[in-house]
Write a structure and sequence with these properties.
Helix content is 69%, strand content 0%. By secondary structure, it is mostly helical. The longest helix is centred in the middle third of the chain and has 19 residues.
């Protein structure tokens, strides 16, 4: 079934925001590795929506610490980047 797409593209944005609101409730039912990936997705999307150079730098560092071997190794023993509120 094909949904009517709004001209301003807000249906995509609304869908992503709905996902961000729903995902925390679902995390407790996911295995730990999948929950960590979902959490990383949520955090990265929030950094992306922030759009400032500092947020984008934090986004890349956060994703790197979780998924890029050399960055993981260089961050051992250091505090992990977390989103400031």
């Amino acid at each position: 079934m094909k949904k009517k797409k709004q001209e301003d593209g807000s249906s995509f944005e609304e869908g992503m925001l709905k996902l961000l609101r729903t995902l925390p409730k679902v995390l407790k039912f996911l295995p730990s590795d999948k929950a960590a990936d979902a959490r990383t997705f949520m955090m990265s999307f929030q950094y992306w929506l922030g759009g400032s150079p500092e947020n984008l730098e934090s986004l890349l560092l956060m994703v790197g610490q979780d998924y890029v071997g050399p960055v993981k190794e260089s961050m051992q023993g250091k505090e992990k980047v977390v989103m400031e509120e």
